Amino acid sequence: MNSATAIAFMRRLRGGLDSGLELPEALGRGATALPRDARETLNRIVDRLDGDYTEDEWGFDEEFAELVEPLFAFLYESWWRVQVGGAERVPAHGRALLTANHAGILPWDATMISMALLREHPLPRYPRFLVLNWAFDLPWVSPGIRKVGGVVASPFNAMRLLEQDHLVAVFPEGVKGTGKPYSERYRLQRFGRGGFVEIALRTGAPIVPVAVVGSEEIYPKLADLPFVARLVGAPYFPVTPTFPLLGPLGVIPLPSKWRIEFLEPIETETYGPDGADDRALVLELSERVRGEIQQALYANLVKRGPAFI
Amino acid sequence: MAGRRVLITGVGSHVGSLLAQRLERDPDVEHVAGLDTRPPKVALDRTEFIEADIRDPEITRRIPRTGADTLVHEQIVRQPGLGMSPRAMHDVNVIGTLQLLAACERVPTLRTIVVRGSAGIYGAEPHAPQFFKEEMARLFPLRTRFQRDVAEIENYFETYARRHTGVSCTMLRYQPAIGTGLRTQITRYLTQSVCPTHMGFDPRIQLVDIEDALEALVAAVRNPVPGAVNVAGSGTIGLARLIRLAGRRALPIASPLFGAVTSTGQRLGLDTQSEDFQRLLRYGRGVDTRRLVEDLGYTPRQSTVRAVESWASSGARGGRWPRRSDGFPPTAAA
């Protein structure tokens, strides 16, 4: 936008307000001075200010997700140069449970899995993901996560989403995964108590193991300050090369190179919903998924080569 | 079903009055009695009005005379403030229920109890599942006075139902209701000039349309199912969108200061907010209504969003953007 259009826009906006128009209408009038795409964006923002937008019952706002997509696209293409394998293995419709390794303190890996599916899948779809609980007590973070498809990590949420035939991403390592020190990178932690397998069995959703390489290097956690963590109510307080040294700038993730591989889905429908009560089956499947992800992690680490270049 | 004799406590409340009116017109209902200290809000033809305080042991003599087979307990105070201290609210809720159940012991004809309880029992929690099911009432500690009141009421009814196997007791857990003419905490909140919100939070709010609230009660009277049943419109709405649809402006306040700012506002004569409501404004709450639809057999007609839209379009919507001719923003010349 050059300065002439900006001046014309401001002049019309002020003219509208002077003649007693309400702000949205005045903005609309100002928009006529703008080029077409900017006009459309502005009109959408005006409509949103008036409450004219839709969110589903989870707070997912597809339009918002599209508005912020350029940021994630930049991270995906230029910052982390994500390479994707096996996206076509993710079911194109119906329910499925994506199960991935977890790292990186903030749920960037979830957003990159979303981007991978939007970019590489023949029938792109937005996955929903389960996010560590404490994020929902943080201002701005909690509505932001909801708007792009995150929900509180509760088995009841996962069940309901799968029953609604959504694609759901879970990170069974949970806080053990994101909070592990850099020296233990890519070593999978315990997969909880296999709750994700129970959910898949109960809903008959196939489990798609996902191996994410690159997320461990974005915030190399060198040390933990547990007393600070207790003070702010977080599960851990990481010390990385840039945080808390550089303050808020330390939140900027390092530009590691990423590979995301979607593995062959594991069907669970054959076991029936009662399979969820069979502890041996649950633990066996959980261990199988964990093993497959671990193997794929090592293979992709070799394929990726150096972490940052 | 024919020849039902229904007793409604709290008939002077908005929903209680409308329910009496609704049941009066029902040919299957032979007799309607309403208990309250306040007169009903609408003109009622054949409802026998019992003017009594539910906290008064007197009701143990007056209730059995109605010969009721169905009791609808609607006298539960949901918000302190409206001329009622928290202590008085607790008395009505807990002691009132206790007195009422004592009176019920003397009503041998009683078969059905329907309680208009509250989904407030689940609380509002950052880590809660998005949709509470009926069996999740004890997932989190009871944090507020009202929550503890509701839990106590539910306990009393559970105990009563266990001891009287011939009586079916339905505990309806209502999300906040919204509708034309209704003055509740949420409608008062949405008709303020500015709505204080927690800065950086956009909780998912779930509401029920007043018509649906009423019809769910009627459905429970007709088809009593034992145990708790959630009542809410389908779906949820973000608070930010709710305020925008209501045509109001949000006033974001940093959470640590929220209580201090709103209580200062109260002293200056602005609206009061209960502790429950403040938590709701931060974390929100949703309930799973499958049991309402499948077991009780009632599907709410309005979703949460539709309920808000129809309430807003009925004249409750405010002007979000003050016009310049109203002297705002002030002009340099003024």
Low-confidence stretches of chain B: 320-334
| Element pattern of chain B in H and E | EHEEHEHEHEEHEEEHEEHEHHEHH
Q: Let me know the average pLDDT of chain B.
A: 89
CATH topology of the domain at 4-177 and 209-232 and 286-300 in chain B: Rossmann fold
Decide which structural class fits the backbone of chain B. Answer: alpha/beta
**Beta-strand percentage range of chain B:** 15-25%
Number of strands of chain A: 9
Q: Which overall shape of chain B is indicated by the principal axes computed on the Cα atoms?
A: globular
Radius of gyration of chain B: 21 Å
How much is the average pLDDT of chain A? 87
The total beta strand count of chain B reads 14
The CATH homology group name of the domain at 4-177 and 209-232 and 286-300 in chain B: NAD(P)-binding Rossmann-like Domain
Looking at this structure, what is the CATH superfamily of the largest domain in chain A?
Glycerol-3-phosphate (1)-acyltransferase
